[in-house]
Specification:
single chain, 558 residues, mainly alpha
Length: 558
């Protein structure tokens, strides 16, 4: 044991001698033997390795002919069994780039792989080393980091699992360390914001929904795409979302992943439509690819799709409106039956009527041939010389039937609310109260849907109807309503008083569960659920919902 200690001491002494001579030498390149001794000591004892981990990067710039050997030996230290050795070696990595920046990309790539470290001290050392290099050369460092989150195309099966782990850690580092410090790191601002935008665009072809949201949230936080950005830049963000939605691919109705992605991406794009970006490509795809196979979609996806259509219809341009209106009218006729039936999906009707109003407002004379109206714009497309009286009769009869059904449902729901209040007062257990509370929330949301339908159908009986526009607010039943609002456009238009137990802002975030339950009063819960299917399922579409197939298939922006 004494011999081992003596040997270690001699090794340490030699290292100090090498370092002292190198420190004193004016022309350090003449002391190559000393530096070679330091490199060799990296194979010695733990203390020798730690000391070598300090000295190798310190004198690295003086011996370019030994650069590869020195760097390789140092990397072995980064993988040593001893935590202290690894941490010391990691801390020394940025020093290799201080005077020899040509090694920076390689060092950043290595540090990216070391992010998988399990020990907190080691991981902290990696984070600090990366931040040091980002501050030295943010452009090169970011480029090297993003190489770890690219496509899997060039990865073999053996490497894929390890690469996925590294990729996840690199993404977490970018999210937790780079994005929050963008003001400090991205300098000069305009140049570096454009550079990181390009890096993000180049690496979106293989991301999950959560990862895509992470990148989009970051991009829209940049000054490049801020509130004062021109429409062209806002459109750039929409084009990124279009790529992720895979709008250049043929739609396959059996591909649940694709319809999920379309709906999520459409929702994600709405804030940018509000800022003037075009939604034409989404609407064109909807009209030509999805609506023709609408009947084959799962019921839940139909509702999600129609909700998204309703929310986006406000931003449609006249050409989009003219393209979509025939499909919307066709779907309206599917859901607005001419005879009274027990099962009716009022949520879908609300969506379609809302979309119809906003699309028709942009191109009113298109409704002449579709619904038999007599709207005069002075254009040949008015088609006033043709007889569309049958279309008008059919459409208004359907409107009348839906109005009767909505009023009838309103009455049932109002009665049910009173019964819920009685059962709530009699309920003893918290579980019973929770069930009744959910039923009341469902009924409240249902009332709002019916009132919206009545408000939307009322003006459509005229031969020359006035269509609602974006300035005339009807709050969709599943959307948040400003608390300050004390009157409802929908209720006023329908000529009804607001039920005392159904304030306009309540019931919007009702639970996904609790659609059934006991003691439904006079309202049959099953029919109620069918009538307002999807209205309680308040999701944050486009905000983290994973594509079913795992990663997205957005186009690779080069």
């Amino acid at each position: 044991m004494a011999n081992v200690t003596t040997d270690d001491s001699r090794e340490i002494e030699k290292l100090y001698e090498y370092g002292e001579r190198l420190n004193e030498a004016k022309d350090k390149s003449q002391n190559q033997t000393d530096y070679e001794g330091i490199i060799a000591a990296a194979n010695g004892s733990v203390k020798a390795k730690q000391l070598a981990a300090q000295m190798i990067p310190k004198f690295f710039k003086c011996f370019p002919q030994l650069a590869e050997q020195a760097l390789d030996q140092h990397l072995y230290l980064c993988e040593d069994e001893e935590l202290g050795v690894r941490v010391q070696a990691i801390r020394g990595l940025p020093l290799f780039c201080k005077d020899t920046p040509e090694h920076l990309a390689k060092i950043v790539d290595i540090l990216g792989q070391l992010l998988i470290a399990g020990d907190n001290v080691e991981r902290d050392a990696v984070h600090k080393a990366l931040m040091s290099l980002l501050r030295q050369d943010v452009k090169t460092s970011l480029t090297a980091l993003f190489k770890n989150i690219g496509s899997t195309d060039d990865r073999n099966a053996e490497d894929l699992s390890a690469w996925e782990t590294i990729r996840e850690k690199v993404l977490c580092f970018i999210r937790d360390k780079v994005f929050p410090n963008k003001a400090e790191l991205l300098k000069p601002k305009d140049e570096m914001e454009r550079h990181i935008t390009n890096l993000v665009k180049q690496n979106l072809q293989d991301v999950t929904a959560a990862e895509f949201k992470l990148f989009m949230d970051f991009l829209k936080s940049l000054s490049l795409f801020g509130p004062n950005a021109p429409v062209e830049r806002v459109q750039e963000l929409v084009e990124i979302i279009e790529g992720q939605a895979d709008l250049d691919a043929q739609f396959n109705v059996s591909d649940g992943d694709h319809i999920d992605r379309y709906i999520s991406c459409l929702q994600m794009a709405i804030p940018f439509f509000m800022r003037g970006a075009s939604c034409s490509k989404f609407f064109n795809y909807l009209s030509k690819q999805i609506i023709p196979v609408f009947d084959k979609l799962p019921e839940e996806r139909k509702i999600d799709l129609l909700k998204s259509l309703a929310e986006c219809s406000v931003f449609a341009k006249p050409p989009d409106s003219r393209l979509l209106l025939p499909s919307v009218v066709q779907l309206l006729k599917k859901y607005m039956v001419r005879r009274k039936i027990e099962e009716m999906n009022f949520t879908c009707i609300e969506c379609l009527l809302y979309a119809f109003h906003h699309l028709a407002h942009k191109t009113p004379n298109a409704t002449n041939s579709l619904c038999g109206y007599k709207i005069v714009t002075g254009q040949p497309s008015d088609r006033l010389g043709e007889d569309f009286s049958e279309q008008y009769k059919d459409f208004t009869e359907r409107l009348s039937t839906i109005e009767e059904l909505a009023k009838s449902m309103n009455k049932k729901l109002t009665q049910g609310m009173a019964e819920h209040n009685k059962t709530m007062a009699a309920a003893k257990s918290e579980e019973e109260k929770e069930v009744i509370k959910k039923q009341k929330q469902n009924a409240t949301a249902g009332l709002r849907t019916c009132n919206n339908i009545l408000a939307l159908t009322q003006p459509l009986h005229s031969k020359t109807p006035s269509f609602f526009s974006g300035d005339q607010k009807i709050n969709l039943s599943w959307k948040e309503v400003p608390k300050a609002a004390t009157t409802s456009t929908a209720l006023v238009a329908a000529g009804k008083k607001r039920p005392a137990a159904a304030p306009n802002g309540s019931g919007m975030n009702a639970s996904k569960k609790g659609r059934g339950g006991s003691s439904g009063g006079g309202v049959q819960n099953q029919l109620l659920n069918k009538a307002f299917e999807g209205i309680y399922d308040v999701r944050t579409r486009g905000r983290g919902r994973g594509w079913r197939g795992g990663r997205g298939r957005g186009r690779n922006f080069r």
